[in-house]
Write a structure and sequence with these properties.
This is Translocase. By secondary structure, the chain is mainly β.
């Protein structure tokens, strides 16, 4: 469907950086900066979208984790010797015996230990089934880190979640981190990633970013237009029909980290046009919004770009800002 009133081309400069983040491998390579020429807004007094050169630090893009402090040494007071009562002094009905004073304390300590487990299992289309079990942390916010990809999840009432994540590397490592500093690591080998190309856009909060793929010359609203409103599923990639978009991040997390990842068969000969877009809306108008793009072709090194958009004022609401040429052409990159 034709959902846009007007498409606005963005102008400015992109800065490239590898923002792998907390506990992550740093195998990404930087991409050359690009220039984008654009036009003024037709209904906003010639307001111009600027993309400024920035470098996001991992602390800016990741959650603010509280690093646990090292425990101070604890000094115990000398034990006081207590004389056992004589058998004749015991009340009637009480049997004399020994008391293990350490056992209750050990049981209490065991109850306080929070066991967190994470497991990663490869599935179709180079996806990974990621499960986390943390019974002592129900309904808690978790940050998932994977090869520069960052997003937030919430555990359920049992302290668990079960999701499917696009792998960005063949030797895939997933770190799950809770806000209290606890966490777990899971690994999987995803050989099937060699058959696919992947691009991702990730951001924080309600910024309105969208990843759009137009396959085989498709226009907006056509069957080959793949975006969050027509994301498809992994069966399209498995059968070679085209690509699909995975939406990552729990919408229930306030101001959370979210991502969209587009997967496309690397041996597809047809061209795919990619763009990153955002609608001027009440939540972002007049603000600077930040995002990061990631790309890997057939499981090779990850290319990362950081960007900042200066969104026009609210009188331009309903218009779309479009950034083209942020990614390598998938057809060219696979040759």
């Amino acid at each position: 469907m034709r959902y846009r009133k007007e498409i606005l081309m963005a102008a400015g400069t992109l800065s490239c950086a590898v923002g792998i983040g907390f506990f992550m491998q740093q195998s990404a390579t930087t991409a050359p900066s690009s220039q984008y020429q654009g036009a003024t807004l037709a209904n906003a007094d010639a307001a111009v979208l600027d993309v400024e050169e920035i470098v996001l630090t991992s602390a800016e893009f990741a959650d603010d984790f509280v690093k646990p402090q090292k425990e101070e040494p604890v000094s115990f007071a000398p034990e006081q010797e207590m004389a056992a009562p004589a058998l004749d002094d015991l009340p009637s009905g009480v049997v004399a015996g020994t008391v293990d004073a350490e056992k209750p304390a050990m049981e209490d300590t065991a109850e306080m230990i929070c066991e967190i487990t994470a497991n990663a299992r490869p599935v179709a289309a180079a996806m990974v089934n990621l499960t986390v079990d943390a019974a002592c942390l129900p309904n808690e916010r978790v940050t998932v880190h994977h090869s520069g990809l960052l997003f937030n999840q919430l555990t359920d009432e049992n302290g668990a979640f079960d999701i499917t994540v696009p792998s960005m590397s063949i030797d895939a490592t997933f770190v799950v981190a809770f806000n209290n500093g606890e966490g777990a690591v899971a690994q999987a080998v995803v050989d099937e990633l060699a058959d696919y190309n992947r691009v991702a856009v990730q951001w924080k909060g309600d910024t309105g970013f969208q990843l759009h793929a137009r396959e085989n010359g498709a226009d907006y609203g056509d069957e080959g237009h793949v975006w969050s409103g027509a994301a498809r599923d992994m069966s399209f990639a498995v059968t070679g029909q085209g690509g699909f978009i995975a939406l990552l991040g729990d919408p229930e997390v306030a101001d959370g980290l979210v991502a969209e990842v587009y997967t496309f068969p690397s041996d597809q000969a047809d061209k795919v046009d990619l763009s990153v877009e955002t609608e001027v809306a009440k939540a972002n108008c007049g603000l600077e919004i930040e995002a990061q793009t990631l790309q890997t072709n057939s499981g090779n090194d990850i290319t990362s770009r950081d960007l900042t958009l200066s969104v026009p004022d609210c009188d331009a609401a309903g218009n779309f800002l479009v950034l083209n040429n942020l990614f390598e052409d998938l057809k060219v990159a696979s040759n």
